[in-house]
Amino acid sequence: MAIGTAGLLGACADGWATTQVTPTAAAAGRARTPVDKIQIIEGDVTDRSYKSLGDVSATVNKTTLFNADPTREMVNNRLKAEAAKLGADAVIQVRYGTVGMGLVSWGSLDGKGRAIAYDNQ
Q: Which pLDDT score is estimated for 102?
């Protein structure tokens, strides 16, 4: 019984997340980018030209009272994962909500941004 309970608790350890992507036509046919290469930028990029690949958003949820509260790092990881699928170099204009409880979670944090690809120079 202890093994079953530990397995169940372990399965819930990371919580759950939802994501949403609204790609632009520029995202079509782009190769996937390694997640660790994607930048998270809270402002705009003014020193390089780029094209928008789409808007991305993520919400990270705390499934039990015992899980850690969602962090910006957790949200950033989800944003990067979705941007990688679009072939992005960065997610810009990233903004975050506040941690709060919901009907189906003990806490959640959301983030939104725009996936971009730098123009070749």
A: 66
Per-residue burial over 13-28, b if 16 or more Cβ lie within 10 Å, else e, is eebebebebebeebbe
**54 Rama sector, left if φ>0, alpha if ψ -120 to 50, beta otherwise:** left
Tell me the residue range of the domain where 6 lies. 2-118
DSSP reduced 3-state for 38: coil
pLDDT at 37 over 90: yes
Q: pTM of this prediction?
A: 0.81
The SS3 of residue 53 is: strand
The confidence band for 71, taking pLDDT boundaries of 50, 70 and 90, is very high
CATH number, domain with residue 63: 3.30.110.70
105 φ/ψ angles, rounded to the nearest 5 degrees:
-150, 160
Specify burial of residue 63 (Cβ count, 10 A radius: 0-12, 13-18, 19+): middle
Q: Total domain count for the chain?
A: 1
pLDDT confidence band for 44 (50 / 70 / 90):
very high
